[in-house]
Amino acid sequence: MPRINYIRELTYLEAIREALREEMSRDGTVFILGEDVGLHGGAFGVTGGLFEAFGPQRVRDTPICENTIVGTAVGAAMTGMRPVAEIMFADFSALAFDQIVNQAAKLRYMFGGQCRVPLVIRMPQGGLSWKSAAAQHSQSVEAWYAHVPGLVVVLPATPYDAKGLLKAAIRDDNPVVFIEHKAMYSMKGQVQDEEYVVPLGQADVKRVGRDATVVAAGYMVHFALEAADTLAQDGIEVEVVDPRTLKPLDEETIYASVRKTNRAIVVQEACKTAGLAAEWGMLIYENCFDWLDAPVVRVTGQDVPIPYANSLESRVWPQSGNIVQAVREVMYLK
Amino acid sequence: MALEVIMPRLTHDMQAGVLLEWYKGEGDGVQEGEPLFAVETDKATVDVESHAAGVLRGLRFEPGDAVPVGEAVGWIVDPGEEMPQIGPALKHAEAGPSEVAEKPGFFPSGPTSNVPDPQAGGRIVASPVAKRLAKQHDVDVGQIKGRGPHGRITKADVEDYLAQRATAHGCSLSAAAALPPGVVPYDVVPLSKLRQTTGARMLASVRTAPHFDLEAEVDMSEAGRWRARYAEEDGAQVSYTALFVKVVAQALRKHPQLNAALLDGELRVYREINVGVATATPEGLVVPVVRGADVMSLRQIQETIIRLREGAGRLKFAPDELQGGTFTVSNLGMYGVDAFRAIINPPQAAILAVGRIVERAIGVEGQIVLRPTVRLILSVDHRVVDGAQAAHFLAAVWRYLENPYLLL
Amino acid sequence: MELSLDTLKHMYRTLWTIRRFEETAGELYKKGLVKGGIHASIGQEGVAVGVCAALRLDDWITSTHRGHGHHIAKGADPKRLLAEILGKDTGYCRGRGGSMHVAAFDVGSLGASAIVAAGVPMGVGAALSASMQGLDRVVVSFFGDGALGQGTLHESLNLAAVWKLPIIFLFENNQFAVSTRIDRSIALQDRQALADAYRLANACVDGQDVLAVYEATNRAVESARAGGGPSFIECQTYRFEGHYFGEPQVYRTREEVEEARRSRDPIVRFGSALEMAYGVGAEELRRLEIEAAEAIEAALAFAQQSPDPLPETYGEYVYAADKLHP
What we know:
- The complex is a heterotrimer.
- Chain A folds into two domains: 8-191, Thiamin diphosphate (ThDP)-binding fold, Pyr/PP domains (Rossmann fold, 3-Layer(aba) Sandwich), CATH 3.40.50; 204-330, Rossmann fold (3-Layer(aba) Sandwich), CATH 3.40.50.920.
- Chain A contains twelve helices and 14 strands.
- By secondary structure, chain A is of the alpha/beta class.
- Chain B is α+β, with helices and mostly antiparallel strands.
- Helix content of chain B is 25%, strand content 24%.
- Chain B has helices at 128-136, 155-167, 193-208, 221-234, 240-254, 298-314, 319-322, 387-402, and strands at 3-6, 16-22, 29-30, 35-40, 45-49, 54-57, 66-68, 72-77, 211-219, 260-263, 266-269, 275-277, 279-281, 284-286, 289-290, 327-331, 350-354, 358-364, 367-381.
- In chain B, a hairpin with a 4-residue loop joins strand 4 (35-40) and strand 5 (45-49).
- The interface between A and B is medium-sized, with 38 and 30 residues.
């Protein structure tokens, strides 16, 4: 875990904004485009103040045209700029699927290395405590994009990670899908004053333990930590591994942990089928089979579109209690 | 008609708002659309307007209170109307970030179809790590009772079994079967992996390497004095074994032919001097190695030996602690043995066996005196080293022991 | 901008280069030497040549699946282009793109996309880039009648107009989207009205008249360079081959195609114009044609002798690897 000088508490949203501000000051080719990002400061307020600081050339409001927002960003990225495109809700990225998946991800490869696409696409996803947004405003989309060769996919869980990873993403020459969580925007965390970058492709052990490994990203990290606290009361010490970058994945950190604890739980907020938990589980089986004392267990959301009514919605999300149960199961405890 | 005035939800994830200021007071008349109070959310300060005309009554919160969304803060009643009965004001503990629903609920993972009994057909079900652990300790995993689902044998089951076995003295009386006449009753004690390996190596060593031995009796009085001075000055208690390792290492520097091995018909004279120290463990003999003993100080050697001994006690070594030895020292002095011949540790060229240091009568300048002496026996592989070379080496060893200052 | 005689001759030769290139590609396809499909622009050479004559080397174009002509007209080397079509390591894209995904960044082509209309928003992005970096470059985004059905095309027209970007939307109308005639699929009969509605300067020219294409493009380019914003140019043209080589063209009659070849060949027209108005002799024209043919023959030899990419390099270029891993 990083040793931080406990200098400031920022919210996740503020941390992201700070990263944008710093990178835009540092590099004149970095600019923002998206719906309502300018005067309005973004639908969630992430880009607040940046329009005033950098002007309309570098913080550009667009019409509602996700595919063309991303396509424009791709064209600009190919020709010397470093755009940061905002998609208002991750669910809407489906409209830009062609430009993200068929174009941004593949142009460098298809053109035999003649160009780079140094593009960042930011999008908030998820539900949980951001309730009642229902099926088209609450999804988790990381698996859609992790499946595409050529994309980098990031899902930070803390303000510290969010700031550092966004800076790394902007500086990186690859197309990065930078996924935020709308329910974490108001979550506070320590962020140091000194400039820093969190490298892409590097996981973080958020809690050291010896009895079981929990692999979780995004909001699920906090559920995992909550579950760990509950289990600690019974003397069970859980290790929480946060991949941070989902693609490419820092596999070695996960394996080192599982080989130490002999037990793995993989967690995702997304609905179960074909999510990244399955990928992590399989990698663990491929690389850590002989170290496992129990099958790898998944904790995930249910395979349904997110319903509107609270009583239904709360039944669909995974909870920290599920993680506690899962750990007890792999430890053969009641 | 009494109409509730509530704390409205002003942002998507708002759970509560801080009531900053009342613009109207108890009993004031209000118009529709008139601002009643100011609310602070985590984004901005917002005025909440009246949705009706009437008289404001029953104000329930003070400026500074955090009010949950949907909670009534007051009523608008018709002039002259009575206030409805109301319960106590509910304050929100903190107007902070939203909470997550508490219900732990169901468990969405695990097998989705009916999994048949894996133990069917006499299969032994054990987790991969349990199998590995059992194999490491030469235990038939099938003998162990499994407490996991479907009788799965888990790591904990194997560990418990091993712990039990360790405390149960390792032996068990054989069944009360009648023995044929003339056969002495016995218990079968399993040969540990380590013992088996050691046995095989020693047998190979004796069979293939033509051993010959040289003996020396060495006056250790100077060494003893030196050791005491070292403890006084350096504050570190140095064992005789460490001293022997140091001396041997320096002697090997002068006589590298004994720091060698015959492997695959090839004579290898090693460039590093890694002295192994034969060590007894509950499971058998191990020879952890002090790597680079010739460039270590006496204290470093001492510390290394202590560390290696600790490791031996737990039977836990790093890979390079057991490999790469070029010469071995074996010390049985602490058990009261005067002298012994050791078997060379293959594929090394030689081994030095050290006996106890005890006062013996020796002749010095025509007098019989009592001096602490030690008997050393150097065993050498005649394929690699001749008598003269071995003698020179042994001479170097006892010269250092009798004059430790030569080591400096 | 007046075109010099040398330039005009170069344009004529380029028309032939494209024509011979496409025919050669077609022959390779019929022999089974090209694995994917070839979407030839035979009959549409005039548009590519006329447009690119108005562009500088450092201006950008985005192209389509029918993009060989665009690339050659922009200055791409036919050798490397043909090598790419044959999937060779010496191709522009090192064999990883093929016919539908050619690109030649060194001559200002940002690549062909096989997704209809996908190149257009990228062109908008490039124009934005030029504008933000203070470069006086312009972008030409080629698209066909099929693209008019795609939302992203309209989104791009809108965005370029709102942001006043230096881009020319080049509508290469060859009347057919695969098998669908434009009048059956696009409700906009009057594309000029479309351009007007988005407040784009616009023109409509006969795509088989190279000089007309050049003049319209040149006007639009000069305006864009001077900060006049985006334009929309429709070039009415015709493709002589099927959507791809070997397509059973059930959607039009053989007579229609032959009539077009006879009376609407842009090379024949331009040749006549050169003879009549610029005094270029028939000998000279023939010489230029032969030069083009020889260049293509050399390209074919080069491509056929080039090595295939090594199988173990399949993973190269997925990421720009420099900074990703710590």
